[in-house]
Design a protein that fits this description.
There is one protein chain. It contains four helices and no strands. The longest helix is centred in the first third of the chain and has 34 residues. The protein is globular and about 45 Å long. The termini are far apart. The mean pLDDT is 88.
Amino acid sequence: MIGRAASILEQLDRKGLVLTSLFSMLTINGWIWLGMPDMIHYAGLSGIINALLALLLYRLWRHRPHPVILIIAAGAGLKLAVEVLTGQALFTNTLWPSVPSVHLVGVFTAMLFILSVAYTHRICKIS
């Protein structure tokens, strides 16, 4: 999944791919360190994957709006809500525990990145 999202994002927005990946690494590690101090090990990339999926859906929508993109986004949002409410990841079966709050942090990170880029572009146009 991360390979496909990254591949498409590299074509649409290479800078966004790199910056969202780096920003999500920082925010996810910060969340685990500050918000989950009892967690000793974290063995996943799921938060980054969720950040890249959110950015990918946004970029695809901006590039070529299509109802399928909205359906995928709604499905991803519903999945995320169920995961956060139940505390269990859907569609995965790993040896380590799932951390759905990290998925949410990933999505929020992508949203903050998207909003900051939009704000920066708006400010630059005004100046």
